[in-house]
Amino acid sequence: MAGGVHDRKRHRTRGSLRRVHFTVRSDQNKVNRSAQAALERRKQFGKRAHGKRKGFLGGSCGSARTRALAVRRRFCAAGFCQEKSCFKSSSELLLGGLTKLGDSMIKQILGRFPKKPSKSGDKDPTGRPSSSVPNPPLGPRGAERSSNLSSQPPVISSSGLSYGSGMHVGNTNSKLNGKLVQPTVELLPSFKDVPNTEKNNLFVKKLNLCCATFDFTDPTKSVKEKEIKRQTLLELVDYIASANGKFPELTMQELTRMVSVNLFRTLTTPPRESKIEAFDLDEEEPVMDPAWSHLQIVYELFLRFIQSPETDAKLAKRYIDHSFVLRLLDLFDSEDPREREYLKMILHRVYGKFMVHRPFIRKAINNIFYQFIYETEKHNGIAELLEILGSIINGFALPLKEEHKLFLVRALIPLHKPKCISMYHQQLSYSITQFVEKDCKLADTVIRGLLKYWPITNSSKEVLFLGELEEILEATQPAEFQKCMVPLFRQIAHCLNSSHFQVAERALFLWNNDHIENLIKQNSRVILPIIFPALERNANGHWNQAVQSLTLNVRKLFSDHDAGLYDECQRKYEEDKTKEKEMKLKQQVAWKRLEEMASAKATSGAAVLVSRTLPRQSSGV
């Protein structure tokens, strides 16, 4: 019965609406006809002489013009005329005024009818697409909670509003009259206070609320708003951790937008005092981001979202795209080590979950390395990027692709060039060793590349190279070792004779490795003649007692392994030493003769021709 009454009321209302619309349209037609007649009369009278225009303005026509002006004033007073000075004809004024009046009446009548629910493709007042999740029927208490959510006051952000739909517009602080306007947020209901059907909508609203950013350089500003956002972020983390259904596409879109707003920013590097050595930067205190109380939760939220089995990679890759990955990689230059640690975990999960992005991620990391090696030599996240690559290389399938070998030659090996290698050497050494373990034929390429960038004056860097060399040799097979052993042990001989005791000591420690010792013994006839002079000089004249002791142990190893070869090298060394003494003696005699000749000619007054290589002697010598 109630439904029938309601239908009759609706029918009567629609009928009255049709009658009003018909009346307005008929009035408009009458006005159109009157306007056309007035225009025709004006054209006819416009051809008369100037003196007769007085009669046109007077009489019945004048009264019509007066009435038109009166109507014009009423429309202007009612707000239908938007121009400051209106020069329209009376017919145009009447036509426009009645049209606007009719439109306003229609809008008022239509506004009394209940609006239909918006479709998935409709947009909310902010211009963003509305949620495609329908609103299912709720119980009495659920309907009350739903109305409370929809009637929430607008959340004011730094540059826009988000109304009941929860769609937030803008994410940066705006300026009003030249002053910075801090965003304000209002606490939304908890997930416990809404039914399950409304939790996803509330999740989107909370994501939009967290798009508000604050200035953390001043801890006294927006204290309440910061705490509200922090609590909301914690609720979002718990919601993702306990999710038991696939995340809809709208949720992924809004979550990645919130992450972008909070994380992607311009990194500021504080000024540092000038340092003589690059490795002095290790002694600097790391710079902590003042906004870490919020950033950490955002990172944790995004990490759990990537790890969640409810995240569909096919949908998520639309928003975690190449541009997103590049901006994520830019953050690796952050001064805060806590942020770089989170970035390392997130990028590793992204690489594992989105297979389509893997080649792009490797290429982007290559570009960061190239810029670091050949342009800036300044980057805070090289160690973390190499740590990610170490696990990636560990998963390479065999045989290795040519692309991966080029990455080794063009990116990893040249990373030995920068002076600040100590900041990332451990991760670099692990990555290179992984390549040698995957393909033993790369050992020769790696060792020769290492020798190419071997330091000359940087002793601490030289110690690092020797440690890495030991790890590489431990994974090297005899066939590859023979290809590079001659240039390798020439460099080791220089290290054995280094006046820096740590360099000489680290080189002698190579013989403590059983695998390297076996490689040396198998090729002792080539290696011992190269390093024997260095061993003898160390044993007889090195200033450090520990270096002398280690040198004697190495000599004994060679002597016990092949006494005949050792004696032969000893005799050759003595012969070379004797020849060297004879050569020095001849040089001294030659210099003495030159000095005597120069002195004799100088006393006789004759000109003395002296080679440019000889020092000039005074006449009194």
From TrEMBL:
Highest taxon in the source lineage: Eukaryota
Q: Which GO terms describe its biological process?
A: signal transduction
- One Pfam match, given by its short name, reads B56
The record's GO molecular-function terms, alphabetically, read: protein phosphatase regulator activity
* The entry's keywords: Cytoplasm
Name a GO CC annotation attached to this entry.
cytoplasm
Q: What is this protein called?
A: Serine/threonine protein phosphatase 2A regulatory subunit
